[in-house]
Design brief:
Blueprint: E1 9-14, H1 19-29, E2 34-40, H2 43-51, E3 60-64, H3 70-84, E4 89-92, H4 108-136, E5 139-144, H5 157-177, E6 182-189, H6 202-210, H7 223-230, E7 241-244
Parallel strand pairs: 1-2, 1-4, 2-3, 4-5, 5-6, 6-7
Helix pairs in contact: 1-2, 3-4, 4-5
The structure holds nicotinamide-adenine-dinucleotide.
Nicotinamide-adenine-dinucleotide (NAD) binds near residues 17 and 18.
Length: about 250
């Protein structure tokens, strides 16, 4: 493992305890010159993610965070800077499904919860990251959106609306920070098996699978898009919403 700080990069993953977060953590931590800060609301989920990391890896820090809380997100980024001296990539990946219901049956609390985690969480990630990346004049911010931000899902209006907001947030942030050397993009996954579906009946997941020409995905099918956006190969890519959805949005 190289120890020259000028040749290393540091990556923060918010929402690292979930299915996709664990796959992203394993990909980035497994790169020999990459150090990671893994953060999640759930300490148990974070511990499971760390247990699944490859043996050959860079340094790993973990933090408990509620992404809806600006100060807590700032503390995660502060940890990355204290430990690794810089922040090269921030991945805003925490997200929650909204309760199943038509718009008139969903409460203000349902809407606020979705917006606080899915949208404000991403905003807090961007704010904390640009505080470090602007002085560096370099950085890549990647937001996890969803094809539900591009297509209409009945009974999931808060989820769809918040993911559409994330896509637009990435575009505006890309324009605002391009001259600061910061790229901002999002990934729009189709449905892949994960803990987010724990409350859904199997039949519902089967019906969703039928709408994906390539069937349901797995978290491993998504990591390549993040890896690309985090890399120098994507140096001319900003404001993009990369759809990785098994063909869901194609028809
Ligand atoms: N699974 C899918 O089919 C799918 C499709 C499109 C987009 N996504 C998005 O992918 C991302 C990852 O989801 P996943 O499918 O791996 O689900 P998951 O439930 O396995 O992971 C989500 C993680 O976010 C964490 N989290 C929730 N609220 C948080 C908060 N307030 N602060 C910090 N962490 C919090 C959870 O503890 C969990 O570890 C989410 O943004 C989700 O919306 C998932």
């Amino acid at each position: 493992m190289t120890t020259d700080p000028s040749t290393r990069r540091s990556v923060v993953v918010l929402g690292a305890g979930g299915t996709l977060g664990a796959a992203l953590a394993a990909r980035f931590a497994g790169e020999p010159a990459t150090d990671v800060v893994l953060a999640d609301l759930s300490d148990a989920a974070l511990a499971a993610t760390v247990a699944g990391l490859p043996a050959e890896r860079g340094a790993v820090e973990t933090c408990t965070v509620d992404v809806a809380d600006e100060a807590q997100v700032q503390a995660v980024v502060d940890r990355a800077v204290e430990r690794f001296g810089r922040l090269d990539v921030l991945i805003s990946n925490a997200g929650i499904l909204s309760p199943n219901g038509r718009i008139h049956n969903l409460s203000t609390d349902d809407w606020e919860r979705s917006f606080r985690v899915n949208v404000l969480g991403a905003v807090n990630g961007i704010k904390a990251a640009v505080g470090v990346m602007r002085p560096q004049h370099a950085g890549s911010i990647i937001l996890t959106a969803s094809v539900s931000g591009l297509t209409a899902w009945s009974h999931a209006a808060p989820y769809c609306a918040t993911k559409a907001a994330v896509i637009q947030l990435a575009k505006v942030a890309a324009v605002e920070y391009a001259r600061d050397g910061i790229r901002v993009n999002c990934v729009c996954p189709g449905t892949f098996r994960s803990g987010i579906h724990d409350g859904l009946p199997g039949s519902a997941l089967d019906a969703i699978a039928d709408k994906h020409p390539l069937g349901l995905g797995a978290a491993a099918d998504l990591v390549g898009a993040y890896s690309y956006l985090a890399s120098d190969a994507a140096r001319w890519t900003t404001g993009s919403a990369i759809v990785v959805d098994g063909g869901y949005a194609a028809p």
